[in-house]
Amino acid sequence: MCSIIGYLGINPAAPIIVKGLKRMEYRGYDSVGVATFSDNQIVVRKGVGKVIEVNNQAKLDQLAGNIGIGHTRWATHGMVTDVNAHPHPSSAGEVAIVHNGIIDNYDELKKNLQQKGYTFKSQTDSEVIANLLQYHHDKTKDKKKSILETVNHLKGNYAFVAVFEDGTLAAARMHEPLILGIGKDGYFISSDVLGFVEHTDEVIYLDNKEFVMIDSRGIKIFDFDGNPIQHQITKVSKEFADVYKGEFAHFTLKEISEQPKTIANAANNTKLELDLAADFVKHARSLYITGSGTSYNAALIAKFLFSRFAKIKVEPVISSEVQFSPDMFEPQSILIAISQSGESADVLEAVKFAKNAGSKIISIVNIMTSSLVQQSAISIGLNCGPEIGVAATKSFTSQLAVLYKIVDKICGGCIGLEFDNISESIKKILSDDSKIQEIAKKFKDVSDIYVLGRGIHYPIASEASLKLKELTYIHAEGLPGGELKHGPLALMDSNSYVIIINPNDSTYNDTLTSAREIKARGAKVIGISDKPSDAYDFWIEIPAINEALYPFIEIVPIQLLAYYAALEKDADPDYPRNLAKSVTVK
Ligand code: G6P
Fold this sequence. Notes:
Layout: E1 3-9, H1 13-23, E2 31-38, E3 41-48, H2 51-58, E4 67-73, E5 88-89, E6 95-103, H3 106-115, H4 127-140, H5 143-153, E7 156-164, E8 169-174, E9 179-182, E10 186-190, E11 202-205, E12 210-215, E13 218-223, E14 234-235, H6 251-257, H7 259-267, H8 271-282, E15 287-291, H9 293-310, E16 315-318, E17 334-339, H10 345-356, E18 360-365, H11 371-374, E19 378-381, H12 394-410, H13 419-431, H14 434-442, E20 448-453, H15 457-472, E21 475-480, E22 497-501, H16 508-520, E23 524-529, E24 538-541, H17 550-568
Parallel strand pairs: 15-16, 15-17, 17-18, 18-19, 20-21, 20-22, 22-23, 23-24
Antiparallel strand pairs: 1-4, 1-10, 2-3, 2-4, 5-6, 6-7, 7-8, 8-12, 9-10, 9-11, 11-14, 12-13
Helix pairs in contact: 3-4, 4-5, 7-12, 7-13, 8-12, 9-12, 9-15, 13-17, 14-17, 15-17
6-O-phosphono-alpha-D-glucopyranose (G6P) binds near residues 340, 344, 390 and 581.
């Protein structure tokens, strides 16, 4: 989703900003822009495309000046066009802004400003911030007052950075992340630590309803009533600096390959939080679990674990659906919110509903400085390091590790967790992926892939189909095995590919029967199993393991398959089209 960055310091701003935007590319975007202040004026350059493309064309990094702002846009209001790209200057050009989020009342504000003679070039909601700042500055001739007036008129979720014509930077936060970096050579302000972590690890996390003003004399932070605020400077984890691909061709492959280590890291999580979470869950009046995308698929796995091993009923709810059942939660219930980023707007919204109803929140999250952590009574870290590939891989198996640990704690170790064994099994799969690469070649011209699994393997089938969709743009669908005869069998013919998740457990025989039924209709069957069978046209072998633990290892070959198929289709596995890593708008 959109990334914003601002810099004010002793170095040329534009190269720092462009590099910061490149580091934040993983968040997903469609256009790029930079504005700098130099020679008493603000100059804006922007365009549609990747940072490198727009930079080659518009020479963003050659803009002069030591003060500037930058943005990668993920379109919400208005098409993907050069004009709609940020930064947006005010009509008088005395202030320019970059914005992340959505201004709900932009239409009304825009009409008002137009009546007063302020003009607009774009179709975005964001441009209204520039003209509103300009309008209040024209009225008050005071930057602080103009920011205060502006934030008090804006409705919605936003983080913006503005550069004024005297070289002052200002930034405000309302339910979108905004982090201030305090470097030796200057100040940074960004939606993501990765925007500036190579320059400084000293940061201030702005709270909601706060704004900061930065000039050559230093920084001043205020709340939305204009009161000065003091913040502690905190140091960010060194791990954040680990955002290089190393020997790997793509972040996605690197992150898939890290799983033997990251699962172990998640499993070694702080005992205290796990104990607390287990205790909360045991005493909850009712238990809900939520997430979006991959994190929701982890929630579906949790449902099986809780009921089978802890004998506790848990209701999984898709985060974006919660607002349509607002009465679901009750006092003394617990909502477990799962999110890699901790910034997904849908998850935060679900949390808001639950808290308003008097429920407590346990979050399972990778970014421990995120908004979700701030909203939670207990937060358990995934501990898997930054995940840059837009499609979640290592964060998924780390989420599983934490969920398994909580359930295992509640049932007194009944699962028989063997994390070393899981890691070793995954290493075996990773050590020879030549067969997976061969199968990926077949997906080049395939239009539909089905993934079938029963019981706990059905959520894995859903996660597998999500990976295939995200990375290969092929239509993929997860099917519960028993439902095959209730519809999907009609789709099977010689053009269909079906991946069968069939480890040697209680689902094995039924799923093998499904494989035979599919094969009898001419479809190609790819079996993922520890047991070979003549029902499979292609067999991807996984090691045998304690049957409760199969989900950890059976997803790995499918992550690889999706990755290699993306390469076959010339799709960028790290940055799939139209998608964003952190979906911070609803
Ligand atoms: C986006 C990403 C998905 C991810 C989902 C939830 O849609 O493209 O890969 O699963 O957000 O993200 P979260 O950070 O909340 O886990």
